[in-house]
Amino acid sequence: MNSETQISLRDRCRQLKKKGFTIQQIADKLDIPYSTIGYYVKGISKRSPRHIAVDSIIRQTGIRQRKGA
């Protein structure tokens, strides 16, 4: 696998993880070892629909919560 293919595969794994797929589901879907997926998506957590909606509102309105509030 060349480095360009590897980068694109890593990006695909990260996209799926952000959409809520488990590491096992990604591994099965892309036919890649579980441990490789774990390495690619390390630090990416599943975002709840509520967080996604709130982030969208913040981006659209520019509203930000103050620190300590």
From TrEMBL:
Residues of the HTH cro/C1-type domain: 16-49
Pfam families cross-referenced by the UniProt entry: HTH_3 (PF01381)
Gene3D superfamilies: Winged helix-like DNA-binding domain superfamily/Winged helix DNA-binding domain
Protein name: HTH cro/C1-type domain-containing protein
Organism listed in the record: marine sediment metagenome
